[in-house]
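Could someone model coenzyme A with this protein?
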Amino acid sequence: MQRTRMLTPDDGAALAALLTRVSPDTSYARFHGVVRVLTTATLSRLLDLEQGRHEAVIAETDEGIVAVARYVRDTPTSAEAEVAIVVADAWQRAGIGRKLMQELMTAAWQAGIRHFRATMMPESAPVRQFVSSLAPTTRGCIVDGKVVVTIDLPDSYFPATTPVRVGGPEKREG
Ligand SMILES: CC(C)(COP(=O)(O)OP(=O)(O)OC[C@H]1O[C@@H](n2cnc3c(N)ncnc32)[C@H](O)[C@@H]1OP(=O)(O)O)[C@@H](O)C(=O)NCCC(=O)NCCS
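Reply:
Sure, complex below.
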């Protein structure tokens, strides 16, 4: 059985071990090249976490981390962030990817982010299907031979953070 939680800087060894559960194809789809070992520099970048700037949600089982989804905000106040996700092969198509992305979208929304940008290899049709299933509005373009999809975090999915007044100022009696 898997549970989810936020990744912390203490999860380095467990995060590195996730790669042992990932096939070359899955690694290629996530990193756009086959990565078998996380270098110290990469690990340090992946663990450079800060609420509202760079957050990651993981799914873990008794065997360790089996999936991670993260966003990295473009600038400290930007409404847009780059998003990436990987689910270990044995755990794919079990709803984990969708669950992690929903939790990540909630954290991002609360930080003021309204759009995710996902970069994927052109041959990754299943990933495009996955991304399209996350939100009602997405749009894609090709940049440097890769597909870049912008996902609008759906307003209807999140409670309003600021009450919106319709019809101008309230009229007072008397
Ligand atoms: C893409 C990925 C994250 C999906 O994670 P997952 O846990 O397997 O996905 P879920 O089970 O939550 O699927 C949610 C929906 O996505 C779509 N989907 C997911 N995998 C799919 C596949 N292989 N083929 C077609 N549709 C797929 C389906 O619409 C699915 O809904 P359904 O099961 O009700 O039909 C996972 O396959 C993965 O890690 N791929 C390699 C890494 C990668 O490509 N990362 C993205 C680059 S940023």
